[in-house]
Amino acid sequence: MHTKTSARNLAVAISLAWAASATGAPAQAVPGDTAIKAAKHAVTAYRDDVVDTLAKLVSYNTVADKDIPCDRNPRHQAFKDALKQEATRLGLDYADYGCVAIVGLGKGAVRVGLVAHGDVQPVDASKWKKSPFELDRTSEPGRLLARGAEDDKGPIATALYAMKSLKDLQVPLSRRIELYVYMAEESDWGPLEAFIKTHPLPQMNITLDAEYPAVTAEKGYGTLAVTMPATTAAPPAGSPFVKAFRGGFFGSQIPEDAQATIANATPALEAQIRARAGKQAGMHYQFERKDGDLLVVAKGLSAHSSKPEDGVNAISMLADALAVQAWPDTTAGALVNFLNEMVGTGYYGEKFGSIAYRDAFMGPMTFAPTVIRQQDGGAPFGGLEVAINIRRPQGKTTEQLTNEINAALAQWQGAHVQLAKVNMQIGEPWVQKDAPQLPVLMKTFAYFTGSKDPKPVAIGGGTNSRLFPHAVSFGPAMPGTVYTGHSEHEFITTKQLLLNLQMYTAVLAELAK
Description:
Layout: H1 4-22, H2 33-45, H3 49-58, H4 74-89, E1 93-96, E2 100-105, E3 111-117, E4 143-145, H5 153-168, E5 176-182, H6 190-198, E6 204-207, E7 210-211, E8 215-218, E9 220-228, E10 241-248, E11 253-254, E12 257-263, H7 267-278, E13 284-290, E14 293-299, E15 303-304, H8 314-321, H9 331-343, E16 358-359, E17 363-364, E18 366-374, E19 384-392, H10 398-415, E20 421-426, E21 430-431, H11 438-449, E22 457-459, E23 471-473, E24 476-477, E25 491-493, H12 494-511
Parallel strand pairs: 3-5, 3-6, 6-23, 7-24, 8-22
Antiparallel strand pairs: 1-2, 2-5, 4-25, 8-21, 9-19, 9-20, 10-12, 10-18, 11-15, 12-14, 13-14, 16-17, 18-19
Helix pairs in contact: 2-5, 2-12, 3-5, 5-12, 7-8, 11-12
């Protein structure tokens, strides 16, 4: 039985050790000699093996299937079978609980947990040089490209070899290490929440699904989905109107694709659109005349929606390219007007009434359209929904933000069209205020990177840290770099994979000793 007392004792023990260090009492440097030796062994002995294991893990398409639960998905089971084979081969123990697999090392009532996920985001295979489920080691020297390479199969592979390295050197462990691999993190947290109710979790946890130096705060995930009403008639004959508008792939990806069809577009109108589009940085456009219509195809750059600034939002930019006039309120025309008047090309909701705000530690709220979906009625006059991804920091209550969004929507509708539907989901921001492992993480990161006095950070994404005791995220992405998970160009560099291997090994040697 893993009790709250055990967790409290572990936290107190580590806190006292670092308190002693801070007051000048004798304390071992972190990382200690054993941790450094284990890290060197890991990167020397397993620099090729960890890449080979990553190649094996990414070969399984573990995108969620909405019709098959994670515990019965045959692709997920195949991935877990491969994970079991790797764990067994490395001398680690393995247990399968359906949607959760656990790889373990050592014994002890007190445990240190590593938290990762084996499912991945949807992928557009046409955008990859090779199959996204084949580790591409050659197209871009120094980079390992595949869906899941960074999010989260790369971290899983490094965690396995970090544990193996401690086993090789017979590092004395007084605490058991457990790697939790959840199979529905990208789609449904319900099975994990149910699992936690019957399975006591490790008393201290590190999530391998975000950034360095360590993440102690995450913004709340939200979605505002508004549907433009289906229209029954076109504008007056011969006048230009937006006949269709679509774009995006899934809700947590900044869209790199969008397209619009303009009916009755004159050469002069096309020239205006071309000129406005030509001023946009990072965008590429194609124009095609088709059956009397003008088709405008926009290409931006995909990114994780928690970092809209890392991408170029094709939906927002295409709407802006069309902002050469106010469009008649066809379904698609009303959507373009809404995007230009209420969202614009910014990231922070500055045009959406009074909703914009920021927190000193967690940063600004981000507000980015990600997917446009055709609703009932069919093109060109069916209802059209745009989903806007929200990442909100602390600083406003859910009630306040909800009221501000509704007020902005009411004002827009009063001047334009009545929306057919509004769906809103506002998640809560999360802050970890009790993480006794932070000193070990900070000093380990500083040692292996040369960073001076690193500090915890906040992110826009949401990880399973929220569900595990005393959890913070530690990697796999370096600060100041573009996180490629959720993009159509996901990779991890070989250099980063091996650096992560060293740091994970050293941290486990310190926390589990």
